[in-house]
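3.2 Worked example (two chains)
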Amino acid sequence: MKNTYLLIFIFLFGCSNSEFESLPIGSSETEYLNIIDFPNNQKPKNIVFVVGDGTGINQIALSRIVKGGPDHKLAIDQLPINGISLTHPYGNLITDSAAAATAWATGKKTKNKYLSIDQEKNILKTLPEMLYEKGYISGIVATSSITHATPAAFFAHIDSRYKEKEIANQFLNSPINIGLGGGVEFFDIEKASKSHVLLDRKELLDLDFRSDKKILGLFDEDGIVRSEEKPTQRQMTAFALKHLSKDIDVCTGFFLMTEGSQIDWAAHDNNAKKMLIEFDDFDNTVKDLINFVTKDKNTLLIITADHETGGLQIMKQKNKNVLIKWGTGSHTGTPVGVYAYGPGAHKFSDLMDNTDIHYKILDLIGYDNLNESICELYQ
């Protein structure tokens, strides 16, 4: 009997996913950014919406500790407004990226795997579709394929996130003016070349393109494999931002969604080192966007996550290392952070549902009072 109890004890407490991973505590100096105040009554002209897929508060905390210690300030740490978002989808406690992004894009809850349709498969109009009718132009950036769940929710309407060839077809007929990411295998390239300027090499992001045709950058067969030859989220976002903001005075404004997709993939694999590399690219993107907002003064920056992935726990310090533990290889229902900077940022300082973000954006730009028009850039 004693041996039986011992075996039970070992099973419950010794064979769980409880092995600690040790990572060095960093010592880098903080790079402080110029953060300015915005009056609460100022309306934003442009919206930049940044997604750290799978990025919970502990993913950010670990990145901070490993880069410069617990008192270090990442770029995301310097955003003046912080809130919390619930993430659950329709009929479930745990969301996937499709349902979460649908909540942002449409303001409606839906089932996991569904993209911008409701639980009864009725089409839900997305932010880029709504803004197109009011004279906006839009861009999508992702380190996954641009037909993957999060980016796809902003332009596709389909009952399975995995129908990526159909999602690619819908992209070509969508109002998205600039799309950058992976996903060559899902597109009819000959068809795409008739409606879009096609980019397939990182070097092309250094060029300026005319604003008389839509732009589609596809830099890998599926998700972008990180290498010196492939563009980063930071580089793709810089290109999209430069082109969307160029000549923007002839439009009502622009909307840009940029996602660090593979933070989530690394967390699914419980691969902390890979996650930290992906998050570093993400935070550098955030740094550039903060600097843009400070200079531009008309753009609202919003940063959040679709869900937390991995159940990451920061357990304790051992000498000059931090010990961590993963709780799962899946998504969790843990609420995630919301961070904002720019005109209207103060509206994101509360506890909110993920659908609320959609309506806050529309309210802040004064959507109902905008005139109907179509911007001719990148058409």
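3.2.1 Second chain
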Amino acid sequence: MAEYGSVPIVSKKLAKRSPPLVIFGITFGDSSFLDYEPDTKLKVKQDDLLVFFRQMSVMLKSGVPLAQGLELLAENMTNKKFGACIYDISRKLSGGEDLSSCLSSYPRIFAPITVGLIEAGEAGGILSKVLERLALLLEAQSKIKGQIKGALIYPIAVLVLAVTISLALLIFIVPTFDDMFKSMGAELPALTGLMLSLSRVVTSVGFFIGAPIICFIVTYLFNTSYATKSGRLFFDNLFLKIPLFGDLLLKSEIASMSDTLSTLINSGISLVEAIERCINASNNAVIREALNRSISLITQGQELSFALSTSKVMPKLLVSMVKIGEETGALSFMLENICNFYKREVEEAVTVLTKAMEPTVIFVVAAIVGTIVISLYLPMFDLINQMG
């Protein structure tokens, strides 16, 4: 049983009277988290977890007993509900429980991979080192997610704007031209007739009732299908085949997988167990299926490089680098290099995607708005030609 130090049991009233304490430049003493009950269903932002593990590592290295350090961190948290959970963990530690066991009580905050790393750190006596690596792992994953989100924000925002402008033209502008064309009695070009028909559909009562219903049905069917194993596998495979975006998703998954594997192996966890925890950490069903097959082959005596080579989704470069790591006896080191390589690839892919999307989205917006405008002026040009 690991020893983490003790935390004095205090009442809420007494805790609130405790004088502030300054450690590492941080002032502690706010016990308002005691107003909240620990919530096992609570979810916490990844950035909050990153800061939490980094501060834990610093405290351990500085000789602060873990249970006491956790109580101090709980007092300093802006998220008081999270603070209540951490304070509950510190009390359990004082009661003699292991940290990994305490963290597993909050599965929505601390993922299985996190608990596994902590457990390995406890067993190997390198808890502070594992906490630091865990913070670096979360930081890398957070950076990758941020890059992907950043690459998608601009095109999504522009497309939403394009749809809004198009609907505004069809609802408010096109109907006025419709009335004018009817009064003229002129024969309308096919494009103009199509646009007027589309405007009548959009401005009809049936559209305002039917469109939300159709959107709801499509969303429901997608969510229902995506919740199944086969549906998740189908859509995740489809996402990976989207030009530019699919390549970015795959590279980000490989970077996270390599980083996680390296961290787990360096912490003393066996290869098979490390892969199992990577499966739980992955967000893509195609990657998870490939890793599942790898476990089966490794338990049969095959090497990781061979197991990965049987998957169509794993790049040949990844397989080759893993094979070199196995042959040189430096698999963990090679996985770190793979992670760094694919992190750079993600950054380059984000740059390429952003540069490619900007002109593409602008062209699409211009094409949509331009088509609507041209369709409205075609009858006028025809009329002018007839008069001439």
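3.3 Remarks
The longest helix spans residues 127-184.
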